[in-house]
Amino acid sequence: MTDPTPFPFPTDVAGLRVALFSGNYNYVRDGANQALNRLVGYLQRHGAQVRVYAPKVRHPAFPSMGKLVGVPSFAIPGRAEYRFPLALSPRVRRDLDAFDPHVVHVSSPDVVGHRAVSWARHRKLPILASVHTRFETYFRYYNMAWAEPVIEALMRRFYRRCDALVAPSESMAQVLRDQRMNYDIDIWSRGVDREIFNPGVRCLEWRREHGIADDEVAIGFLGRLVMEKGLDVFSDSIDQLQRRGVKHKVIVVGEGPARDWFAARLPQAVFVGFQGGADLGRAVASMDVLFNPSVTETFGNVTLEAMACGIPVVAAAATGSQSLVDDNVSGRLIAPGAVRQFGEALRCYVEDAELRARHGAAGEERSLEFSWDRINQAVADTYLRLVRLKANKKVR
């Protein structure tokens, strides 16, 4: 029988202490760390204390939310913009002990994430892991597909030592169940800022400045320019349109180490570089179709942003977009890597303005369901559930 004596743990967000571990909290901007920073901001507004443990750099991509404590790290060879966390140093462990968190949140299955899980398990603290990307799929883009089962096994060991997971979509949650990563999985979806992403910020003048005529259909790519985003599939699919004489333009929004490769592959494309805030919203709304062939995302922030702008999406039928796009209603879902089918789906949108408008409107309607506050409260509720479960075990 459970002892009814009250236990000294918070029962709501106010007073909750969260230790968050991230491999990239703010030194390179991406969808995952944008979501983590939004979560920290939400928790702090509601009275929680959050301490973030992650690599620090001299010139981060953006200011961090919450107190950021640097962990030892080194630049990854060949991808120097990213850092590899090394260890929980004595200094970091002292800081953790002094902070005395109620719950530990790990967001990357790296070395420091593993050490944080061990630290929390030793103290019988609840551990939540958030899943932000399909790391195991990255290796297939670098001719190392043989490593995928090994990485998946290592990830399984990591996630099964956690008390629960949060995934950004039900489709990703099902992948995790199928991979036997864990079976206590809640959904931490993603939201969209409607002030930035909406059809009203479409700008014909901006298009003209980049050489796109008012009557031309612009197919957009949005994201970091790295091979694992499916740049090869994107360019091969665009070749399908060119071979069939389908008039179109390509807008590429983003920067990354594969930019030169992508620019050489698509010499007629318009590369507008990194865009942020209102500039990003304008760029997305000024597209006519978003093409997202990536299979590595667990949610698909870019897909949701395009939908909020009333833009139909052609995407890989994979985790993330699969939970957002209603096939043949708000866009098209195509088998990953199916270049000819991607090309045909794009052709239909390029040649049918009414279809673009109808599917774009359906996507915008769907995007209205994604409120950041409601989404982040779901994570807070999971923290509190795990704290309550651990506390009940302690008072038995």
Automatic annotation (TrEMBL):
Ordered alphabetically, the record's keywords are: Transferase
Q: Which GO terms describe its molecular function?
A: glycosyltransferase activity
Please report the organism this UniProt entry assigns to the protein: Novosphingobium hassiacum
Q: In terms of domain of life, where is this protein from?
A: Bacteria
Q: Which SUPFAM superfamilies match?
A: UDP-Glycosyltransferase/glycogen phosphorylase
Q: Which residues form the Glycosyltransferase subfamily 4-like N-terminal domain?
A: 30-195
InterPro entries recorded for this chain?
Glyco_trans_4-like_N, Glycosyltransferase_grp1
Pfam families according to UniProt: Glyco_trans_1_4, Glyco_transf_4
Does the entry feature the keyword Lyase, yes or no?
A: no
Q: Which PANTHER family match?
A: SULFOQUINOVOSYL TRANSFERASE SQD2
Q: What protein am I looking at?
A: Glycosyltransferase involved in cell wall biosynthesis
Q: Which CDD domains match?
A: GT4-like
